[in-house]
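User: I'm writing a tutorial on reading structure tokens. Could you give me a worked example: one chain, its sequence, then its tokens, then a sentence or two explaining what the tokens reveal?
Assistant: Sure. Here is the example chain.
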Amino acid sequence: MSKPIVLVTGANGQLGKEIRELAEAYAQFSFLFVTREELPIEETEKVKAFFATHKPAYCINCAAYTAVDKAEAEKEKAFAVNGNAVGVLATASYESGCKFIHISTDYVFDGTSPVPYTETIPTNPVNTYGLSKLKGEALALIFNPDVIIIRTAWVYSAFGANFVKTMLRLMKEKVEINVVDDQIGAPTYAADLALVIMLIVSKHDWEATTWQPGIYHYSNAGRISWFDFASAIRQLAHSNCKINPIPSSQYPTPAKRPSFSLLNTEKIQAAYGIQIPDWKESLERCMVKILSNG
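And here are its predicted structure tokens:
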């Protein structure tokens, strides 16, 4: 009997690469990792043909347009990948009986909440990236009511470009740097999120009733600013670089950022019986990996 196929889009991204790292531990599945070149997810007919040929049992959509500032000038591109393409994948998954997991973002919120965001707090994106990701969520829910959407925040990894690696580079190049201290949230180590996704998939493969569609929030535990995050990176890297806390007003960007991005993760913890690691514990694990790779 052939193994269930897990299709992972966005294979070259941080999360896609972390799932690839885990694949060996899930020998009960066959994994199919694809880039946009291999599967242009916004093209309906190509996606339908791909699903018909490969017959995946699960589709994990890690593909995204993530250049938040660039999205302000490339709205059409952002909406094609983060919006329309999600609808295409949702439809193909639903029509072929494939379970669909889609990754979304804290940027669907405006950052004005006084408490961590639950899944039921109304969305209100403040930039193009957030709007495009919200459209993707909406299309996923319309075309595949059985979808699991996981919103996450401040993602980093030993792979790809991210805040941790940028800070490490700047700390080597400069004697002091400025980091905003008035944007609050919690980082997400992509390796931790990858584990949760594979837990959901493997639980369903073992017992079908464990699939609980809907929207979930996931990030590491804790509450920090970007300045706090940078300071922890500095400490773990044993850097002498000075970090100055500054307000967002002193670091203008093309895209507005939510000032508060903390996600309430109680729903996913209760639904899947998971314990979420503290942000600093996860950062330490990631830093060991990055620094050992030179």
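What the tokens reveal: Residues 75-96 form the longest helix (22 residues). The mean pLDDT is 97.
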